[in-house]
Amino acid sequence: MKLRKQYKQDDTLSLQGIVQVGEKTKELLMTIKPKQIAVIKHRDIDEIAARDIIRCKVKAVINADVTMTGSYPTKGPLLLLRAGIPILEITYPSFKKFYNHQVVKIHSFKIHVENHQIPYSIFTEDKYKNLLKTSYENLPSNLNHFIENTLQYAQKEKDFVIQSFEAPTLNVRIENRPVVIVVRGKEYRNDLLAIKDYIEDIEPVLIGVDGGADALLEHGYQPHVIIGDMDSVSDDALLSNAEIIVHAYPDGKAPGLERINALGLKAKTLSATGTSEDISMLLAYEKKAELIITLGAHSHMIDFLEKGRKGMSSTLLVRMKIGDKLIDAKGVSQLYQRKVKFKNIWPLPIAAMFPVVILTYVHPGVRDFLYIYWNYVKISIF
User: Fold this and answer.
1) Which residue of 118, 256, 274, 294 could cross-link 278, Cys pair, CB 3.0 to 4.6 Å?
2) Boundaries of each Thiamin pyrophosphokinase catalytic domain copy (predicted)?
3) Where residue 1 falls among pLDDT bands split at 50, 70, 90?
């Protein structure tokens, strides 16, 4: 088995590759190809981004921001390192020296980009462990600020959640039907796989929140509705004939509409505070869904800090309003992985032999063969 390289601070890398550049990691990952080098500007690389980078099979990551600040615990950098993907940290001004499809060489503590030599520092597991310890020390203070921010904004946003809003008309019927909402959160792909039997048996309404629509397509499901600001969903998903709802700001501005128009598609807008996943849950609720099942939804402080949000006021209020109609299936794939036991499979060979026995009994040719063979055995023995 090939051992994973354990990088140290004084290690020098020697590799070459084509770069793909993007200030927003989730947009970059929609175009990057295997074995390319990702050049990003991502402070505190979160777990979702890291897993997607690994899925894209990139050769290395060049980060023009602080890979991990120690403000809160995140697994993202560790996942990359354990997948054998080195992380090189550079200064932000150097970020502007890169462009898509450029060939770069990394050698002798420098990134050779055309006529420039950009110094870098390598992010190591030792550095991760030290920052993780710091993040846990900072956790009580961060939790305090997070709660205060949540309560402050909850006071401002409560009217929108409390009152019914005018939901756009949909072609798909939601009333008295279960709804599965897939959000681009931790383990959302595995969670979707875990409830495969439920989806196939019950046939619920499927709503993809931005990149959640791609997860539905990857598993062979056609999303009925796609809702979000359209920054992390693929063109293939948008062109899948799903109904599209663009999440607009409270003032009515909807930057995501530009992309929809560029694709020649039609969409409806929904102006609201909060996150797109909050709006999708409220939409299902206002349409009188029988049950609302969420996969990958953000539900705690670390989730929201990784999204760059300092509170979760709208999410808290929405969950309070929906009440027992909501089933949060996040992490269901990690709940239980059943092992095959001998006592459960021993009947299988017996069942497999049953048709052979029946065939032997009813088929005259088989009976004659066994009769002749048995006589031969008796003659040989006696």
Assistant:
1) 274
2) 204-239
3) very low
